[in-house]
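Reply to dn_fold:

You asked what the input looked like. This is it:
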Amino acid sequence: MTKKLIPAREDIPDDRKWDLTPLFNNDEGWEMLFGEVEQEFESYTNFKGRLKDSLAVFTDAIEFHLMITRKIEKLYTYAHLKSDEDKSNQFYLGMHQRAINLFTRASEVSSFMTPEIQSLPDNVIHAYLEDDATKEYRFYLEKILRYKPHTRTESEERILAMSRELANAPGQVFGQLDNVDLHFGTLSDESGKEIELSHGNFTTFLMKPKREVRQKAFFQYYQAYENHKHTVAATLTHSIKKDLFYSRVRQFDNCRTSALFADNVPESVYDNLINTVKKNLAPLFKYLDFRKQALGLSELHFYDTYVPIVCDINFHMPYETAVDVCASAMAPLGEEYTETLKTGLLGGWVDRYENRSKRSGAYSSGCYDSPPYILLNYEENNMNSLYTLIHEAGHSMHSYYSNQNQPYVDHDYTIFVAEVASTFNENFLSRYLLQFYKDDPRMKVYILNREIDNIRATLFRQTMFAEFEKITHTIVEANRPLTLDVIKDKYRQLLDTYFGDTIHIDEELELECLRIPHFYSAFYVYKYATGVSAAIALADKVITEGQSARQAYLNFLRLGGSKFPLDELLDTGLDMHTPEPIQKAIAHFANLLDQLIAEYQKI
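and this is what came back:
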């Protein structure tokens, strides 16, 4: 029996890895800048207590602080990318920890700045804001002033800054356990090939036509979490307690208000998402019932929800071909967009393939002084990898346009709008593939099925996750215990709600909530659901309205972080305060389902 093992990092060719030399030529360059920043910290004393002295001192302090922050972001980006290449590499793990510690120390020595800005007399700060010298920093300063009711004294802010590294412990422990210490064993696929099961190929196994294979993969994968369920429940609980600590210290009403405050998003937008989705679950139930019928099953299980309804289509797409497809799919955005995209994806932005102990999943990451890097675990036989590529490319192109058009102080857009850019790209990919395969009924069914599953995962599933976060945080806020049993019980109730009676829920699925890394960045996942809703509406506008809508969308990407996210979307004509964008997304899902059923009946 042949055996396929995950390669070591050194076995991956260099031209298939990201090129980090735009950040630093080598580790020595990183060490030099690290030392420079440490020495520059003492210059903060030149500004402490003096921000009221003059506009010149004030602007010098802001520029110095942004300069230090920019350098630290460069150091951190390099360190976390190198660590994610191989989470077992202790040298780069240490470098990553040093970068986090440097940020913590910078927060300590600069902790006087926010309280001092907020304590400036009204006539002084208004005069500063009205002067052209602060024009570039106006939105940055307005955001600081918004936090005035939630900012503590200088000494308290210093203590809070010192606590940040310690507060990351639950997420760090989960990350090491999940990416390094958890092992899922090997299993045989339908051809008899023995393959090591991993985060990277778990979904691939769930897409296997042979039910015994995906069933075995499901139970074997979750056995690892069953073996560590008490530990992971503890890390999750203490991450939520960390959220509660900071929300109470900063005098927010609750953890969710605290998390949404930076984006200026009211809780009503969050609740609107949950309520609108829960009122419109009928298309999801209809789809799952159709899936059970199409697969010829008497009972649908979760491990049956990923396998394509048309199972005899062999998808194989090398990475280079996938890049060409992504560029072609995004052609409606114009040649500048597609050429930049293609050059980046082939020219060093992307770390393409899985290697042993590499961070699981995918992301786009970078800083103002680097390319918008992408971590992938690309698999040529999995269409999800193609969608992941164009998803992360959406983030990276957003970063590219933002960095090209905004100053450093306003370049960093929020996750809320980031998820619009990524899912917009996925929508365009589906449109392109449906047209490309218009004369191939079976492939058309396959693509429709895939697009429906994509929206199901991004809209319905992430909304369920968002409600889970709301529930678990509410429990901790009420000073009630959040034990493993409570976590599983609450998650089971959500599974029953969001799946109805369409699937048989195996007990192992109650552990799903223990394996979601995003739960360690609280109230993050709802942005996937709002993002896909906005993206569907914007994609439709670009296709139907042409040049004006295309320009509006590209201008949206160029805005970066220069406005609050809801205001940026209002510029495109979308109001996320209302149920309408969510309803339109669900209607789009229902329309795709009707197309799928009609096309399936033809084959």
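Strands lie at 3-4, 186-188, 194-196, 350-351, 363-365, 373-375.
Hope that clears it up.
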